[in-house]
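Give me a protein, keeping tokens residue-aligned:
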Amino acid sequence: MVRTDLRNIAIIAHVDHGKTTLVDEMLKQCGEYHENQQVTERVMDSGDLERERGITILAKNTSVIRGDVRINIVDTPGHADFGGEVERILKMVNGVLLLVDAGEGPMPQTRFVLGKAMELGHKIIVVINKIDRPDARLEEVEEEVLELLLELDATDEQLDSPMIFCSGRAGTASLSPYEKGVNLDPLFNTIIDYIPAPEGDSDAPLQLLVSSIDYNDYVGRIGIGRIERGTAKIGDEAVVVNYHDPDATPKKMKLVSMFEFDGLDRVPAQSATVGDIVCFSGAEDITIGDTIASPLDPTPLEFVKVSEPTMEMTFSVNDSPFAGREGKFVTSRQLRERLYKETLRDVSLRVADGETTDSFKVAGRGEMHLSILIETMRREGYELTCSTPHVLYKEIDGVKCEPMERVTLDVPSEYVGAVVEKLGQRKGDLLEMNPVGSRMRIEYSIPSRCLFGYRSEFLTATRGEGIMNAIFDGYQPYRGEVTMRFTGSLVASEAGETTRYGLYNTQERGNLFVGPQTPVYEGMIVGENPKNDDISVNPCKKKQLTAIRSAGADEKLLLTPPIIFSLEEAIEFITDDELIEVTPKSIRLRKKILNTELRMKAMMKARREAEKS
């Protein structure tokens, strides 16, 4: 059976290349909104964090109806750290739209997801977006896309993929770069003509692969996936099986409710057949990668084994003197429940119990992946402390190997020297250097751990004009120790409220992280020392009041504005003996050992051991 009335497509694009805006226009032009309906921009980015950062974190499903054909559209994350989302979403579709910015061209994350789609043999439609940009390079970008396809060993058919030129914001598309489009008809027609319709036997026993998970307090866990064969009806008996666990006993379940996607809404469906993407409930412990099969033929479907995590952080209960002041959830039990619940939705995340009962080891695909989780938990009212990230090493053929990153940097020509020098110090290997207008595009292969703390350094070196993107690039033999941070910390030596007088004396030692009248505690980091040593300071020091009037009594105390860290910047800044205290209202940096005397003893002991070895 061929479902000529259905097409399933995913949109592949780099962060900020305009895929969510394009989906908005597709929904508008297919009449999904009323004429007078107020519509939020980038409606597919439904999370607050997604809107703020302009990125897609969780893959979303929607559908539009064009004539007699329903087009199911899956919007995928563009950042490699959320690649776990991408890999399984591609199993739900028959073809992909490769969306490329007309100014920037194909970027590293585009390469990563496109490679996965080509491995599955999906048909590709190339969409060059933002053609109305003043710096659009249409012909060059066309060539860059073809070069990328060649690099990824595309078949002849994939090299002849149709190319469409779009402006997502204006809602226009054309088949030629020199013709101005009127609407998105050329795009819709190409999808219907070029992307194959789903095929399968609707009378065979049911097989449905769960590619995504949602949760609802009323019906419990909801599975989302595509029916590969057979027909599903509400009330049907089925079993849950898994390809990677063939010896497990199939679990019985009953399809309690089922929904299809209609625009942005989920509408109840009594039955669904081959090719339909549906949401269903009825299986308690369903997880991503499970197959819902008929009891008559419980054969599991093969599932993309999601790439392993490359980075680990330790999350622990907040034990600072300010613990419990701002958050609702502060105990280890609440932290454990929240982290293990996240693993049900996020297939790339691994959570294990730590060395103590109050700590947990959380492994993910990258710095951004973990920082999004921390930020989400913080907004939900959790308090926690986080350690510095560590990469996960692997032993391959008896050799210790570490994860590598392929870094693409787009920098103004005058700053190339400073960037190359710093990356050389961090054990990076230069792969390519090409001029793009007045800028230079540089590609490096560099160990993942050597990029910690480099992003802020890079922005300083390029005066904020540089663009940096990194993508996981396999494992290579360990490259030895590298010093990543060359500065120390200014640590508060007593608890209290900072004073202007105390900070004025402290700022001579380095950059401040706190302003006046800020509560601090002993062991909290209040600034950065330009030298590679920690200094204990007292920012709470008050001016002694005397009856004698001195010459400098009425001097104005001018303070340099403090540096306020975002969560990512804080993760990059801290070293092994430091932690980040995260609460709903604050991000504080602190030492692991808060007591000054005990910390100094531990530091001297570590130094003596280092000298001996």
